[in-house]
Amino acid sequence: MFKKILIANRGEIAVRVIRACKEWGISTVAVHSDVDKDSMHVRLADESVCIGSHQPTNSYLNIPAILSAIELTNAEAVHPGYGFLSENFEFAKILEDYKIKFIGPSSKLIRMMGDKIQAKKIAKKYGLPVIEGSEGGISDINQAKIICKKIGFPVLIKAAAGGGGKGMKIIREEKEFENSFSLAKIEAKKYFGNDEVYIEKFFQNPRHIEVQVLSGKNRTVHLHERDCSVQRRHQKLIEETPSPILNKNIRKDLFEKTVNMVSKIGYEGAGTVEFIYEDGKFYFLEMNTRVQVEHPVSEMVTGIDIIKEQINIAYTGDTALTQSDINPRGHAIECRINAEDPSKNFQPSPGKITMCHQPSGFRTRVDGSIYQGYKITPYYDSMVCKLICHGRNRTEAIQRMKRSLAELVVEGIETTTSLHEKIISTSSFSNYEFNINWLESFLKK
Prior knowledge:
Layout: E1 4-7, H1 11-24, E2 27-33, H2 40-44, E3 47-52, H3 63-73, E4 77-79, H4 89-97, E5 101-102, H5 107-114, H6 116-125, H7 141-151, E6 155-159, E7 169-171, H8 177-192, E8 197-201, E9 207-215, E10 220-232, E11 235-241, H9 248-264, E12 269-278, E13 281-288, H10 295-302, H11 306-316, E14 331-338, E15 340-341, E16 347-348, E17 351-352, E18 355-357, E19 364-368, E20 375-376, E21 383-391, H12 394-407, E22 409-411, H13 417-424, H14 427-430, H15 438-444
Parallel strand pairs: 1-2, 1-4, 2-3, 4-5
Antiparallel strand pairs: 6-7, 6-8, 9-10, 9-12, 10-11, 11-14, 12-13, 14-21, 15-16, 17-20, 18-22, 19-21
């Protein structure tokens, strides 16, 4: 096994990776910005290196500084976590050239599946249903109009090189098209350095379903699906597994086609294939070539440590798992707790945590990096922790989540805890009468 791994990330995912490394007996190196010197991941790691100032471009996105930290500490491998450089094929390629193991797929696969248009073509090639729309990136407005007339309104415009809702526009009527198309191109250029967009059919009442995979040279296995349909502005707030809407036949078809594609492209590591689901049909959305924020719900129902297995695949090239090893039990739900004020349009709430009590108890898990006295800065993602609860069934998981949210105390800053309490107490959530557009209307009430 690796002797030393550098974690090129911060916050809860860096803590999560460090814990997995410790269980493997692997020494860890934390990198951090100047404002993160007192962070939990720095405290837990065996070594730490400051790689720059608080701006991400000067630290967590600073490839030369991270390479210097690798050389300084003699780390053998790098775990990128999620976000930052986790899907940066250039970073992965540099590590490959320097014979440093990138804990993830090859740079070639990151680049291939990170291009949403190319990924869509690959999915179609290997039998996954794809959403009707443009075959490639579009810059010309007249070409875009022809495509829209072909597939019909409403349509969705997305940045060809992006994600996270940036550069994404819903166009319901033809008269809105020109202005929205121009805005989408401007945002795509601003956030991703590429103004190409692509157009696809917009779904009115979709669910967001994703399949977790672990893949080595020897085989690909799936850890079943996750339902991530509670979203605000295309950002997930609550995730769960199994999805209450899928039946046995749809699951079988979804898993077989997903595993086939992932295996055929020669993928190695942990990954997630995402789908839009509506009216009994699923459509390929994208593939995330990294570990997901919501991976703990899959771990809770399968008993598989995804991060440890991810490290094992990186070292051996193979997965130690067979599909028969994976037997999910019960139901798990995750709430992402952010340092935001829902009563003020989700305004960020940085500041010092003056009181912190995290829930515990039977089948209750908190993945985070906060503690009493810790200062939340305004420079990074606002998520402070993830609360995950497991039950014998969905009803018990919801009851356990209600109890756990009531126990969570974070004072000194505002958090989204109260919003999560409201959401899971609604009949819409209990009865699974929601889709990815539901939360927006719920918040307007």
